[in-house]
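--- STAGE predict ---
source: upstream dedup step, 1 unique chain passed
mode: sequence only
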Amino acid sequence: MSWAFLRDLLSGVNKYSTGIGRIWVAVVFLFRLLVYVAAAENIWKHEHDEFECNIKQPGCENVCFDHFFPVSHIRFWALQLIMVSTPSLLVVFHVAYRENREKRHNQKLYKNPGKIDGGLLCTYLISLILKTGLEIFFLILFYKLYNGFKIPRLVKCDIKPCPNTVDCYISKPTEKMIFLYFLVATSCLCIILNLSELSYLMFKYSTKCYLKRHVKNQQ
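--- STAGE serialize ---
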């Protein structure tokens, strides 16, 4: 799978982000995208082939694997990475709209089309809320799908067509557990960064409005 489009998206977003937003881009790019592509994808590459049960009943192993892994971890994280990055497109599109509007009117309508103020501030705040909401949603969904943030060494399966309770073994559970904790931790870090940036922008905007009102009253 090519991740060039996501890399280009993050590069574009970086131009119009605050300092905290640039840290978020760095975390997503370095600690999530690169780790996913360079290491995690290979660890889960043959997870189905390496899932073994102590019985050779036809269909039993496939059914047990589907029950304990309804969605592949690696595809789940790929979807999560794409979804939490997509709201940033709103900011890129809004800036592009501003630039296109200036070209149509052939005059300078904004001091800086990429400056976070006015309508672009609202778009930026909406993108932060969406990113935070999606991060939390995927963490909760992962927890529900896999009954927690853990990779068991052994799972017991008694689903038909298995004739009785069989033991199934997951390959490289310790290694997978380490990367699971790392990816969950970076996801939590992104939530903290998004909430910090949201609070910062709201505080900055509120202070600006208060000072304007105060100056107006003084005059």
